[in-house]
Design goal:
The complex is a heterodimer.
Chain A lengths: L4 E3 L2 E5 L4 E6 L4 E9 L6 E6 L5 E4 L2 E5 L5 E6 L8 E9 L8 E3 L3 E6 L1
Parallel strand pairs in A: 2-11
Antiparallel strand pairs in A: 1-3, 3-8, 4-5, 4-9, 6-7, 7-8, 9-10, 9-11
Chain B lengths: L3 E4 L2 E4 L5 E7 L5 E7 L5 E9 L2 E4 L6 E3 L9 E3 L8 E8 L8 E2 L3 E5 L1
Parallel strand pairs in B: 2-11
Antiparallel strand pairs in B: 1-3, 3-8, 4-5, 4-9, 5-6, 7-8, 9-10, 9-11
Classes of the chains: A mainly beta, B mainly beta.
């Protein structure tokens, strides 16, 4: 069974601060996805990383995939109240019979105070 | 495109009742999934389907059943509802090829009392 350990579970910060969320596993993933979920809604895909060492930027959000494709991080610069939400990482199994099944981390609840 | 739609949005069931959660996608995705999300937890896979007529169990299938008669629809059936099935249920779909980015519906909040 593949596991993704996501940390921290909770983050409460002031507007303008920086933060990093981590996802770690002992398993190799073919791709790693980050989702953001707002209360009462379904998760929405933010980014997908597929290559070991890959770095992707989405405005103030920077996503990195570990060289061995076992871990990933999400860094937010100068957080804003609009960044508040639940952030989920999810890994797609390496292997032809995975059928796109994702392993999800437990999630990080981020609250950014004005 | 509407994407993935789910009905109902909310439902309260009594113990022992049954119901079907509906899920429809209009993206012509072959792969579809049902998850449950409990407070403070990530998403746990209940069932998945790789195409019409083909379904398989996920991590937590007990107490649930699914069917897939068309590419678009993937209903989830709860038989003999139990309080442990109180949760938020999400349906998702993805394209058959990698990297398997999933598109989620808005969810159904189910309470069993």
């Amino acid at each position: 069974t593949q596991l993704l350990e996501q940390s921290p579970q909770f983050l409460s910060i002031q507007e303008g601060e920086n933060l990093t969320v981590y996802c770690n596993s002992s398993s190799v993933f073919s791709s790693l996805q980050w989702y953001r979920q707002e209360p009462g809604e379904g998760p929405v895909l933010l980014v997908t990383v597929v290559t070991g060492g890959e770095v992707k930027k989405l405005k103030r959000l920077t996503f990195q995939f570990g060289d061995a494709r076992k871990d990933s991080s999400l860094h937010i610069t100068a957080a804003q109240p609009g960044d508040t939400g639940l952030y989920l990482c999810a890994g797609a199994s390496a292997g032809g019979t995975s059928y796109g099944k994702l392993t999800f981390g437990q999630g990080t609840i981020l609250t950014v105070h004005p | 495109n509407a994407g993935v739609t789910q009905t109902p949005k909310f439902r309260i069931l009594k113990i022992g009742q049954s119901m079907t959660l509906q899920c429809t996608q209009d993206m012509n995705h072959n792969y579809m999934y049902w998850y449950r999300q409990d407070p403070g937890m990530g998403l746990k896979l209940i069932y998945y389907s790789v195409g019409a007529g083909i379904t398989d169990k996920g991590e937590v299938p007990n107490g649930y059943n699914v069917s897939r008669s068309t590419t678009e629809d993937f209903p989830l059936r709860l038989e003999l509802a139990a309080p442990s099935q109180t949760s938020v249920y999400f349906c998702a779909s993805s394209f058959q090829g990698g990297p398997y980015e999933q598109y989620f519906g808005p969810g159904t909040r189910l309470t069993v009392t």
